[in-house]
Amino acid sequence: MGQNGWGQGYLGEYSIAAAFVFELVATFLFVVVILGSIFAGGHAISQVWLFVTAPVTGGLTAGLLFKSGMLDGTAE
């Protein structure tokens, strides 16, 4: 399973500044894409729901499966 974190003991041992910069840039790009489609209007705006709904659905599904024990190796 992937992990989020920074500092000693986490994958690349990145600093808190590196983690902050990455999160800032990733969120910025996500918002730019959404705003771009809003201002473009027409066909682009009609497709935004998919790019918001799919990640939320994936996250909820992963959370439910992990909580049920199917993804953490404890389910029989």
Largest sheet: none
In whole angstroms, the N-to-C terminal distance is: 19 Å
| pLDDT averaged residue by residue | 84
The count of domains is 2
Order of helices and strands: HHH
Model regions low in confidence, pLDDT < 50 over at least 5 residues: none
Q: How much of the polypeptide forms β-strand, as a percent range?
A: under 5%
How would you portray this structure in words?
By secondary structure, the protein is an all-alpha fold. The protein folds into 2 domains: about 1-40; about 45-75. The chain is built from 3 helices and no strands. The mean pLDDT is about 85.
Brief sketch in words of this structure:
The chain has 76 residues and is mainly α.
For the structure shown, list the relevant keywords:
76 residues; 2 domains; mainly alpha
Topology:
Layout: H1 16-40, H2 42-45, H3 48-68
